[in-house]
Description:
There is one protein chain. The chain has 14 helices and eight strands. It is 49% helix and 11% strand. By secondary structure, it is an alpha/beta fold. The chain folds into two domains: 15-187, Rossmann fold (3-Layer(aba) Sandwich); 192-243 and 264-388, Dehydroquinate synthase-like - alpha domain (Dehydroquinate synthase-like, alpha domain, Up-down Bundle). Helix 6 (192-211) runs antiparallel to helix 7 (217-239), helix 11 (304-313) crosses helix 12 (323-340) and helix 13 (356-365) crosses helix 14. The strands form two sheets. The protein has a six-stranded parallel sheet with strand order 1-8-5-4-2-3, sandwiched between helices. Strands 6-7 form a two-stranded antiparallel sheet. Bound molecules: fe (ii) ion.
Amino acid sequence: MKNLQELHYFEVPTVMKHALGAVNHLPGELEILGVKKPLIVTDQGVVKAGLLDMIIKPLKDASVSHVIYDQVVFNPLLATVAAGTEMYRKNDCDGIVALGGGSSMDCAKAIGVEIAHGEPVLEYECAEGKKELSKRVPPLVCIPTTAGTGSEVTLWAVITDPAREYKFNVGGPLIAAHLALVDPLLHLSMPAEVTAGTGMDALCHAIECYTCAYAQPQTDAVALLAIEYAGKYLRRAVAYGQDIDARYYMAMSSMLAGLSYGAASAGAVHAMTQTMGGIFPVHHGVAVGSTLVPVMEYNWMGEPEKYARMALALGVPTFGMTEREAALSAVEACRELTEDIGIPRLREMGITEADIPRLAQEAFNDPQTIGNPRDLTVAAYEEIYRRAL
Ligand SMILES: [Fe+2]
């Protein structure tokens, strides 16, 4: 553990409930939270996959009135948030249900910030000169339809400011969901490439948070199990979408990895991919998957003992290996996983050599660079980007 003089804290304001068929409990859960007319925040992909119907049916059966905002786009913009806030106000809603991946859940959290504070969420960016959150968001239920972001339990939302081509963070305990309702049955229809990308995001949250400077025993504990589950079940979930066990444990991996964020941030992969996502329309999880191994190759020397422990969690028989060999075997295990599940390279996402200097500089400026297990420079980021290309 680093920074022993610093006061560490770990707070989880979110109640977590999970089961196959958990969404059928939504009406009762809204009643517990005192919500009579929720705004349902979701996106067109979720609607087309028939997942919205799966939560509307129990609401209708229980005569719970609701309003649907289904215009969330991936990498949600300030305007995406503002339109949802407007809809909430116009319809006198008194709570929010987020149904979707990180984009819908983060958008819902940001709508909650605007409703609670009566100001645009941009005022509450996690940056110098901006305001701290002072009010709790309205009752918020997060129902993830992917297993990756963990946003249902994190204290963060990531929103894109198109004027700056920048994805900014807003967060703290006041933004967290009141309830995470996890139903792996919603994950069965996820296409293989989405399963792969989002699953790598979960694995990466756990790896970065386990090895970053903000790590502490509480986050280490959940991160290690998240790594173990992803190592064991991600291939199966990608290979056969209807594998219920694989879907369940990937949902748990994602949630545990979300908890491993604690109150802090991740590391170089997230510094790179968040800044990249503000400039290029890349899918966050896929971008994470393509940069994770090159970052691990760079980082392992900063936390060799923890890398060796991760190898064990990933199923590598490390008995008899030196610490260096075991640490490097964790990198190798992640490389094999990345290749097995078909994560594309950055080049295939439209990134070119010419983009690297700007991307490296932006990643270096990102607050998540601080806390990475190995010191970074712009030149180091450039080298990592080249390996991921
Ligand atoms: Fe992520």
